[in-house]
């Protein structure tokens, strides 16, 4: 069975002093802490490569924070950052707002709150998982084409699409409490993929920047 490991890397901390839900809004850059997180991740993948991993493909969401997170890894591994729009942040009708009880209590938002299982305020969870899994399957095939059996790929993406993809792979309901996501800033969710079928056969999780998480901003992207 030809296989590849595809690492879903969440971006680092974003500079967001207003605490808004930034979603797909442009020009949300990494904070100083976020840049350090990106460096930690680069070192994590460099160690993997030193230990024999063949990491041959690096792609990122088009959003600024993902591109900036990918940059140190690209430099240390000597890879180009290739475009992958399918792993972009989820669409969300509350972009640009501070999402709290007082904001959501405004009647103009009520039509978007009727179905949290879909969810009605943004891109359906099923749609998010489907597009990310398509990108994962393609990345696995590209990695094997370029580096042979067992070669690896990195996709730099966003918390919500990564998390619902993990739930989908594990056969769990996609509706969830956002506070319970195991997908911290600059974390790595690694999927082993059967490149013949595109099926995910195993999953593991790591937090290369764990030392930088205390005190980090927790405002979600979507």
Automatic annotation (TrEMBL):
Pfam families: His_Phos_1. GO terms for molecular function: phosphatase activity. GO terms for cellular component: cytoplasm. CDD domains: HP_PGM_like. Gene3D superfamilies: Phosphoglycerate mutase-like. It comes from the Bacteria. This is Fructose-2,6-bisphosphatase. The lineage of its organism: Bacteria, Bacillati, Actinomycetota, Actinomycetes, Micrococcales.
């Amino acid at each position: 069975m030809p296989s590849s490991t595809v690492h879903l890397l969440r971006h680092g901390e974003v500079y967001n002093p207003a605490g808004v839900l930034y979603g797909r809004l442009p020009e949300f850059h990494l904070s100083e802490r976020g840049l350090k997180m990106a460096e930690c991740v680069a070192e994590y993948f460099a160690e993997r490569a030193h230990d024999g991993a063949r990491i041959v493909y690096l792609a990122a969401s088009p959003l600024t924070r993902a591109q900036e997170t990918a940059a140190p890894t690209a430099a240390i591994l000597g890879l180009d950052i290739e475009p992958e729009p399918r792993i972009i942040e989820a669409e969300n009708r509350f972009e640009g707002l501070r999402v709290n009880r007082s904001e959501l209590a405004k009647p103009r938002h009520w039509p978007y709150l009727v179905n949290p299982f879909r969810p009605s305020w943004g891109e359906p969870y099923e749609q998010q998982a489907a597009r990310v899994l398509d990108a994962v399957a393609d990345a696995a095939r590209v990695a094997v084409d370029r580096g042979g059996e067992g070669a690896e790929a990195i996709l730099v993406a966003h918390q919500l699409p990564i998390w619902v993809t993990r739930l989908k792979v594990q056969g769990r309901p996609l509706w969830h409490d956002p506070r319970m996501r195991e997908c911290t800033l600059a974390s790595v969710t690694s999927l082993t993929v059967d490149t013949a079928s595109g099926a995910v056969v195993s999953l593991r999780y790591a937090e290369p920047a764990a030392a930088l998480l205390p005190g980090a901003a927790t405002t979600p992207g979507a």
